[in-house]
Every structure is written in structure tokens, then in C-alpha cells.
Amino acid sequence: MSLFSKKTDKELDAIVNQIRVDLSNNYKDNAVENIKLLEKKLEEKKNTSSIKDSSKYEDLLEHFKEDVKNFKRTY
Q: 3-state secondary structure string, the chain?
């Protein structure tokens, strides 16, 4: 057992990181699409019981949704 082991999901972590990049670079449409993807993948993993603790990702998802709630298209 490693001292640094965490119960994380690499696929979900990759999506979360991409959302953070999108938000930091003001790529609003990409962020919204990746938030939808995160929500879909999280539901799939919860339904198949392939994730033990989804609370971290659910909290992040709600935080991201709040961040983009007032986004408007610029074109």
C-alpha cells in the first residue's frame, strides 16, 4: 500500500483537468461540452459500480456548472 494512493479515476480526472484548462483559457463552449461529458461519464460509472466514491466528482461537477451558468456565446 502506497502512502500516496488515492481513490481516483484517471478518465474522470483527465476530463476534470481539461475543464480547468478550458475555463482558465476562457474556452467557454469547450468547457460546457466537457462538463456534459463529465456528467455522462460519472453517471455511467455510478450505474456500473465502477467507481466507489463519486462525491469528489459530483462536487466538482456542481462547482463547474455554477462557473458556467451565466456563460453566453460570443458569436
A: CCCCCCCCCHHHHHHHHHHHHHHHCCCHHHHHHHHHHHHHHHHHHHHCCCCCCCHHHHHHHHHHHHHHCCCCCCC
Cell of 10: 484517471
Q: Other CB atoms closer than 10 Å to residue 39's CB: what's the count?
A: 16
Give pLDDT tens digits along the chain (75 positions). Answer: 344 445 678 999 999 999 999 999 988 889 999 999 999 999 999 999 888 888 999 999 999 999 888 776 655
Q: Cell 460519472, residue?
A: 42
Give the global pTM.
0.82
